[in-house]
Every structure is written in C-alpha cells, then in structure tokens.
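Final report, closing paragraph on structural work. Over the funding period we assembled a curated collection of sequence-structure pairs, and we close with a single example.
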Amino acid sequence: MGKLRSQIDENLAKVIREQHVFFVATAPLDPRGNLNLSPKGLDSFRILDPRTVAYLDFIGSSVETVAHLKENGRIVLMFCEFQGSPNVVRLHGMGRAVEPPAPEFAVLAQKFPAYENKRAIIVVDVTRISDSCGFGVPLMKYEADRTQLWAWAEKKGPEGLKLYKQEKNRRSIDGLPGLAE
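Its predicted structure, as stored:
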C-alpha cells in the first residue's frame, strides 16, 4: 500500500496542492522537550522544485517550529486526502526558517500572497517522500477558509504585530531561541 518516491512528481504535486490543510511536526533534541504538531492551511504552501517545498509561517502564540528548526532542522509535513482517494503523503526533510530581513525572504515571499502577518518562510529540503493508505482517515467536506487570522492581524496593526512577535515569539515553550527580531 505505501510507497517511497524519489521526488514530488506532477501527480503527487496535484494531490498536495488540492489539500486545504496540512500538518507540520518538529521536535527538540532534548527528549524531555515538547514535540510540536501544527495544522496549517490557507494559501500558504508551495512546491519549489521536486525535492524542495516552502510554506508561510504566520505570527502565532508560540514559535516551536522555528525554534526546533534552528536547533536541529528535522521536520515532517503530512497531507491527508479528506475527499476522494484515501491517501496520506509525508514529506520528511531538513528545514530552515527564513526570516525578514534576509534577502532570500523577499525572493521567497513573492511566491505567496502578501499576508501582513507572516513571520517567516519555512523551506524544507525533502529527504524522504512517501505515501500510504488513508483508509482510517474520515471523509470530510471543505467549506471555506477561516477569516479570524486576518481580522486578528488587522486589529493588531503593524506595530501591534511587531510587539506581539517580540513578546511571544522570541523563545519556544522549552526556552529555545525563536525569532531573531
């Protein structure tokens, strides 16, 4: 049922692009540290080439993915088909957080909508690509993207978002370094 793939071909890319949600998992090196598993959505994911992907990391109440990637780079992304074929795709790799004002950030940001509340772009060099059956994954129907993230960011405004990042995104819940600014 499951199979390994050498790259993200056009058929697999189509499956990935059709998903409205994906999941990101990272972990610190310390076995007592907290694992992180986050759902992601919106128009935030891009396939850069057959073995490189990227997604927008939005301002939030913690900064675990960024902190874990800075410490050890390990990451896995999972896409589940909730409609149609029962398929689960996993992209394992080494990731890095590209933050403004890095020159690469501006180049990568052009590939995404101009969301005001992005704090980093996560780039993953994919080292293992697999898909497996999703027979245990329920069938669910997509209705719409939520709008609360945009309303929250608009209410905060640019200065409020900057202060929020400084307050909430400097360190992970385990005390690892988070955002640089």
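Residues 148-168 form the longest helix (21 residues). Residues 3-168 form a domain with the Pnp Oxidase; Chain A fold (CATH 2.30.110.10). We thank the funder for supporting this effort.
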